[in-house]
Amino acid sequence: MTLGVHNIEVVYEDVMLVVKGASLHVPADGIVALLGANGAGKTTLLRAMTGLLDVHRGRISRGHVSIDGSEIDTRRAPDVVRAGVSQVMEGRRVFGEFTVEENLRIGAYTRSRSGVADKLDRIYTMFPILRDRRGQRAGYLSGGEQQMLAIGRALMAEPRYILLDEPSLGLAPQIVEQIRDLIVTIRDDGTGVLLVEQNAAMALSIADHGYVMENGKIVMDAPAQALRDDDDIREFYLGTGATSGSLRDVKHYKRRKRWLS
Length: 261
Ligand SMILES: Nc1ncnc2c1ncn2[C@@H]1O[C@H](COP(=O)(O)OP(=O)(O)OP(=O)(O)O)[C@@H](O)[C@H]1O
Ligand SMILES: [Mg+2]
What we know:
The chain is α/β, with parallel strands linked by helices and 261 residues long. Helices cover 39% and strands 26% of the residues. The chain contains eleven helices and ten strands.
């Protein structure tokens, strides 16, 4: 049982090749981290996985995406959700004019109406703050609450896999910890998680496996523990050394340093 990306290439506007042959696998019972600097192509890869490229004038030009063995890359976004894959987009997209509960109900749109009350109850148990705010306009929630609402809305579709695009971005450390614990709960409840993060320390603290993407390619693919122990990852992503340039620059620099010394 896996969500798989097999040697995908993505082009925008038919000319800009942004993902240049990337493969990754998300097991149904695991958390997989996808790390990478700004512009590496992480969000584009998620769009390719959920049928959202066409609205951005992009398309998959090679490779395919599969869920539990069947290809899904030719399906439209709502069909991908029906197939069991939900995405929480970058930047906490909630419908600000609607109430918290209306936002959650929208998340169940691919499902039949029956059972929505049970699903709402499950989400409210997981996120008690959303139960307290159920009648309020979503636009008035704090950043952390909006992120929880966006995740709760995706869970209303009862996905087998959930893709989270930078859920910790711009949130206070205490809120990031809450989000991290929630991601663990989601995995423990039986949903596979693909976690895109610039906060590598947070992502690698809970992930089973990790990928590093750079310039449209996967440049590292290893158990999370190995990435936590990797000197280059520590230097570049975990803030224990040089923090500018690319992972490759760090490697070059270290090689040169070794050579000079
Ligand atoms: N609709 C689009 N049309 C053309 N180019 C695009 C489009 N969307 C993204 N890009 C380009 O594709 C590259 C990868 O962008 P993407 O958003 O996938 O990166 P990312 O790894 O998610 O970065 P970030 O960490 O900043 O979110 C960037 O150079 C970006 O400018
Ligand atoms: Mg992005």
